[in-house]
Known about the structure:
Layout: E1 3-11, E2 21-26, H1 31-36, E3 39-46, H2 53-70, H3 77-95, E4 108-116, E5 119-125, E6 129-134, E7 137-140, H4 147-153, E8 184-189, E9 195-199, H5 201-204, H6 209-216, H7 222-236, E10 242-251, E11 255-258, E12 261-264
Antiparallel strand pairs: 1-10, 2-3, 3-4, 4-5, 5-8, 6-7, 6-9, 9-10, 11-12
Helix pairs in contact: 2-3
Amino acid sequence: MLDVQFGQASDFGKVRTNNEDAMASFIPASRQQARSHGYLFAVADGVGGMDLGEVASSTAVAVLTDEFAKAQAGTMLISLLPRLIQHANAAVHDCTLDSEYRGKSMATTLVACALRYDQAIVSHVGDSRCYMVRNGKARQITQDHTLVNEQRKMGLISTEDIPNSDARHVLIRSLGPEMFVSPDTTALTLQAGDVLVLCTDGLHDEMHGETIAEIVSQKKTMDEVARELVAKAVEIDGGDNTTAQVIRIRSVEQVGMYRGRPYRLPS
Length: 267
């Protein structure tokens, strides 16, 4: 049976007077729901410089988790999650058409992770990230949808130069500005002891994967770990809102798939 421990934390930082980050989760209410739907975790970062980043981020995670809960039992997560992110994008886009927000512009990043059996599906738009920590080592699962990351792929800038680039936060993909968006989606096979970290750039801008791995590998509760991650990032800089969700995998349920349906593997 898939069993997880979960914690989260968020901080305004030292400069901002409001928090444009948002986070949400869906926790199954029963063993049956854990198998039919699974778990969902999501972090969003309202784009600064636009009018209503906090509205965009909170709308995105609310739509995502609400529709995940309503999804048909047994729906394959790898097809469900990108579809729900598209729904979240449409909801943010439609906010600008409401009379309350007409004439305003808004956008947000979004990273989401759905878990069921021994699988994790990670889907994202923007530069909020997912890391997996296994055996004390962190691996970045998502790739930022930023101008500098595209320049890095083309060999125009080195990885070492990215932190000093004035364009490091220029997004090439986000939720809200367009009617349709294309999230990147990755499937992971989980092992007991794995830790997944979802975070905004207020955190990953300030610490390397090695530091993240060191903090989450401590024998503390997930809430304590999440608070320590956020506090460390704010201590280093604090110029941005900072948010983290931390999910520790205590046990998994290994299954095989036949014609899209799961079946238990012999023990």
